[in-house]
Structure formats: C-alpha cells, structure tokens
Amino acid sequence: MSSMRKLQVFLSVTALFALALAVSCTGFFVNPTLTSLTVGPNPLNLTQGNKQQMTATGTFDDGTTKSLTSGVVWSSSDTSTVPVSTAGVVTAAASGSATITAQSGTVSGTGTVNVTLGNVTNVKINPTTATISSTSTQLFNALATVQGQSATVDVSSTATWSANPTGIVSINNTSQTGALVSVTGTISQTTIVTITATYNSNGTVFAPTAQLTITFP
Fold it and tell me: Against a cut of 0.90, is the pTM above it?
C-alpha cells in the first residue's frame, strides 16, 4: 500500500473515530440550569427625575453566575412611579416606591426602587395630634411642600417612621394611603407617643413629629 493510500486510510479512520466519540458524548455535556435571579442595586434610592440601570445576575445549578441584564424581561409594579425600559433602565417619575422584576422563563428576581422628591422646602405630618383607644388605629400622612408646586405631595411611603417611646405601637407605611399606627404593646395608663416621619430630600433631612395619645383603659 502506498504512503498516500495509508494516509487516506488513517485520516478516514480518525474522522470516523472522532464522529463516534462526538455521538457517544451527546447528552453528556448539559447546559447548566438557571436557578435564581438577583436584581440590583437593591434597594435603590433615587431623586425624582433621575435614571439608573438595573442589573440582573443569574445563578445556575452548577454554582456559576452570569450577567443576564440584557436577556431578561423587565417590569415594574407601578409604572407611574418607576417605569422601566426593556433594557432595565428605571426612571424616577414620581414620589413613591415600586418593585422591579426581572424574568427569565419561570425564574424571576425583584428589587425595590424608592423615589424621593427634590426641592422639598418642608414636610409635615397630618394630623399633628390624635387620640385613640388601645384597640384602635390611627392613620398619619407625611406631606411635602415642593418648591414651585402649590399642592403638597404625600411622601408617607418613602419616609422613615418611628415612635417614641418604642414598643408601644407599630407603624405600617407600605400602602399608598399613609402610615397606619396600631397599638401592639401593653399600657397601664394613658400614654403619649411621639410619631416621627424622617424624609431625606437631596441631603436635606426633615423630621416632623405628631403626638398620639392612647387612652387607658
């Protein structure tokens, strides 16, 4: 057999061996499965009018991670407050909060965006005084005065609420109606609790207070 013929036979056998090996390995190398998505920055605080690129990082079942920002479907729980583009860019359109979701197939991740107002000149709590029994609740609102606007803006959902003394009431400001104060502690006499709403507008901090009287019994 000539050298050329031997070379042809060798190459043919090598090609067949490589093909057989490839076929036998089919299904052996499996693409990793996406198990979770992490959305960031989370939480994100923005001043009204600003924009921010959100990111989505995928974690796979083999322990690896990968940026999937451009490969997920983005959505917002409140597009009037924080709309999000198909590329994951959020816009702080109005005061409030929204949940931003990144979706890839059946896997999703979420992040929270809080929008605060710029050019705030004053924040007050309404009402400034209230009286309730130990089994009642009271709704307070934090209202911001914005330069150039005649109407106040409700910033209850983005203000930080606290009570003094602590341990007597709880404050829930997750709804869009205001901050709901409930009596969760035990009192043995009529008690006055100071309610504070702290609001940060471009580095200027406002901390108005209100007085809540809880009657006993």
Answer: no
